[in-house]
Design brief:
The protein is of the alpha+beta class. It contains 23 helices and 21 strands. The strands form five sheets. A six-stranded antiparallel β-sheet has the order 7-16-15-9-13-12, with no helix packed on it. A six-stranded antiparallel β-sheet has the order 8-18-17-14-10-11, with helices on one face. It has a four-stranded parallel β-sheet with strand order 19-6-20-21, with no helix packed on it. Strand 4 and strand 5 form a beta hairpin. The protein starts with a helix and ends in an 11-residue tail after the last strand.
Length: 726
């Protein structure tokens, strides 16, 4: 049993490494003649848009056939899930995108069939008398009318094109080293991880309980995950704020370490309670000012106190003080409260000096401080100058991006997107900042960021990566294949653009609706494709599926040359049932094809992006496609959600809100790789031309190319966050 469990763990770790790094852990096993099976695997992978590098093929060729076959089964399963090819994608209209009917003719045809059916006719007539047409009452509506195999028989075979996606899987080191490296990279990330990456970190942390251990853990949520493992080992906890302990308590109760959602704290054994209380006491003893953090989460502290019983341990008075503050029995003003007290008296320079005790707070407040007292701007900037060294790189970059959108102009739209991707826009009513102040502050930030970036020898940059936005947070971005940070722009090279959504409900009937909103250059004159408008001049909808106990898919097909709009906004509306975070599985993506390519509705090797659908809203806006002045189409990543209604969300009902959000993000300027490249200290910089240099380089690109020197440092979207300085 122990050996079987060990094998299952290794398979799981292998899948994590392949998914997160696009590297194959160096395979091992009995020697043999595995070359033929390895070539068969390579061919099978190409059908899903993947390929083995030459190094991987050589490594597999020297192993036994059975070892390679076992490896092939695992690897194929992993990459097919990465591309969304692990499920069957059927369509309501069997011939899609051919022979999609006019919407009204389609509904009337189903109504005619329904009225001829003695079992269904009475209910249909009743809805008609009420002045409405209930589509769900129509015979055959919303349910597949053919099998997956019958749909495949009606489709032509895919013609291979040079533009099809090929993701190369490179050879890594042994599984243990690859898993340890991934663990340390996630643990030491300087930016918050998304939900899936945080789960991966927890899994890897449990596997690496005995080491290696990260030298530093800048992100507090990551500390909570690691501290849970350290607590189980009896090791010292990595805490320097009381909130670190609160996050750990949430982790121990399988709750939300981001503190965005309340946690129901579980009962804890006495050793755990003692460890948490001792940690609290140590933090408060070393710095009583840390009690100022308690008020922000006072209700959670009260609930936690009911589990920890601090009154049983009078020797840890610091811990008792934490709960006394939470109950309001002891005062402990936070830094923010002390800053507000200074501002209330008009002492802006004094407020800046107080905020400097928490440098991140100071820099997040600089815009406001500079606006409040023009005569104190020099004093505020002087305080910022000596505090800048204590600010995290992520906050510095966030402020630098803020300044890109904060010049002398007024009347712009402000976009707010929270950590969960919920987006809203409001008019920017703030008075402008002095351009000279903006210029001076930007120069200070550039100099500080430049000093924290590593020195590189030969820098090689793929031009396609220059417009990728620096990943300052992974919170809202869904995990998947080809997913880029919000605001990133990438070229769309293809004549046919096809979106898809897949969902599988968990407990109750769930209806997701894939739609596409098309707007002109003024974000107006809407046209859409959806279940209420199955056909336009430019495209077709695959048909409405309203129940997904075994999984369901919907598609939209667009011929880009026929699209007259400036913007194409795909969206997924929840019409009824479970939300994105409740369904068993859901994901969105898009494919690109040449004009003459046929093929089934879903072809994995044409998938350019596939992202998990997660978020609190009832309408998802993953990406927008923009046609530039040069006539070329580009994708810009949104990762946004609209709240929507509890039910009956439709593209035509949320088009105004969508257009406002779209304007906010299209007109916003983001910090990209291009910005960091200009700051990097490189002895030599060249543009990637497809030829690998002979020696080690630092490569920044969309994918790791073949032929790079083994000692090269490579940054791709999978690890681009490593460029964000601490």
């Amino acid at each position: 049993m122990a050996l079987c469990h060990h094998n299952r763990v290794n398979i799981s770790l292998e899948a994590l490494v392949v998914r997160d790094t696009h590297r194959i852990p160096a395979p091992s096993g009995p020697p043999g003649e595995g070359a033929a099976v390895a070539r068969q695997l390579d061919i099978a992978l190409m059908s899903a848009g993947f390929k083995l590098s030459g190094d991987v093929l050589r490594a597999l060729s020297g192993l036994s056939e059975q070892t390679v076959r076992s490896f092939a089964v695992r690897t194929l399963a992993t990459v097919r899930e990465m591309a969304g090819d692990h499920v069957r994608h059927n369509t309501y209209f069997r011939d899609f995108p051919r022979n999609v009917p006019d919407t009204l003719d389609f509904w009337l045809g189903l109504l005619h069939e329904t009225l001829q059916d003695p079992r269904l006719a009475p209910a249909a007539r009743e809805t008609l008398r009420a002045g409405a047409l209930d589509l769900l009452a129509l015979k055959g509506y919303g349910r597949y009318q053919h099998t997956f195999e019958e749909m495949l028989e009606a489709q032509d075979a895919l013609v291979t094109a040079a533009s099809d996606r090929v993701t190369v899987l490179h050879l890594g080191r042994g599984l243990a080293k690859e898993a340890a490296e991934l663990y340390l990279r996630l643990a030491q990330s300087t930016t918050p991880l998304g939900e899936e990456d945080l789960g991966t970190l927890a899994e890897l942390a449990a596997h690496h309980a005995s080491g290696p251990h990260p030298e530093r853990i800048p992100v507090r949520e990551n500390r909570a995950v690691i501290n849970r493992v350290r607590l189980s080992l009896g090791a010292d906890l990595l805490v320097d704020t009381v909130t670190d302990v609160l996050r750990l308590a949430c982790a121990l109760s399988d709750g939300d370490v981001t503190l965005q959602e309340p946690t129901r704290f579980a009962s804890m054994p006495r050793p755990t309670r003692r460890a948490l209380l001792a940690a609290l006491h140590g933090v408060v003893r070393d710095d009583p000012g840390k009690l100022g953090d308690v008020a922000a989460w006072s209700e959670r502290w009260k609930r936690l106190g009911e589990r920890l019983h601090p009154h049983e341990y009078p020797k840890w008075a610091g811990a008792a003080d934490v709960f006394a503050v939470a109950r309001g029995e002891k005062k402990a003003p936070s830094f923010a409260a002390r800053v507000e007290a200074r501002l209330a008296t008009g002492d802006v320079a004094g407020a800046a000096r107080v905020a400097a005790g928490a440098p991140g707070l100071l820099f997040r407040s600089l815009d406001r401080l500079l606006r409040l007292a023009p005569d104190a701007q020099d004093a505020v900037l002087e305080t910022a100058g000596w505090a800048v060294g204590g600010v995290s790189g992520r906050v510095l970059l966030s402020l630098r991006e803020h300044l890109l959108n904060r010049g002398a102009e007024t009347g712009r739209t402000r976009l707010f997107a929270n950590r969960l991707g919920r987006g809203v826009t409001v008019p920017d009513s703030r008075p402008p900042l002095d351009p000279q102040v903006v210029e001076g502050l930007a120069a200070m930030l550039d100099e500080e960021i430049r000093g924290r970036l590593p020195s590189v020898g030969h820098l090689v940059v793929d031009p396609d990566v220059l417009d990728v936005v620096l990943p300052l947070s992974g919170k809202a971005a869904g995990k998947g294949l080809g997913v880029l940070p919000r605001g990133s722009v990438s070229p769309v090279d293809g004549r046919l653009l096809r979106f898809f959504v897949y969902w599988r409900q968990r407990e109750k009937r769930t209806d997701f609706d894939l739609s596409a909103l098309m707007l002109d250059e003024d974000y107006a004159n809407p046209e859409w494709l959806s279940y209420t408008n199955l056909r336009t001049v430019a495209g077709q909808h695959s048909g409405d599926i309203t129940d997904a106990p075994e999984g369901a898919s919907e598609f939209i097909n667009l011929t880009l040359a026929k699209v007259e709009a400036r913007f194409i906004v795909p969206q997924v509306n929840i019409f009824s049932g479970e939300g994105f975070e409740e369904v068993e599985e859901s994901f969105f993506g898009f494919m690109l094809r040449d004009g003459e390519q046929k093929g089934r509705p879903f072809e994995a090797r044409t998938v350019r992006m596939k992202s998990e659908l997660r978020g609190p809203g009832r309408v998802a806006l993953p990406v927008v496609f923009l046609r530039g002045d040069d006539g070329r189409w580009r994708a810009k990543w949104l990762h946004l959600h609209l709240k929507g209604g509890a039910n009956f969300n439709r593209v035509e009902d949320n088009r105004v809100t969508t257009s406002m959000l779209l304007r906010g993000i299209v007109e916003r300027r983001f910090l990209t790789v291009r910005y960091l490249m200009d700051l990097l200290d490189a002895e030599k910089t060249t543009v990637w031309d497809g030829t690998a240099p002979g020696g080690p380089v630092t490569f920044i690109g969309m994918e790791r190319p073949d032929g790079l020197h083994g000692d090269s440092t490579v940054y791709t979207p999978e690890n681009l966050g490593d460029l964000v300085p601490a």
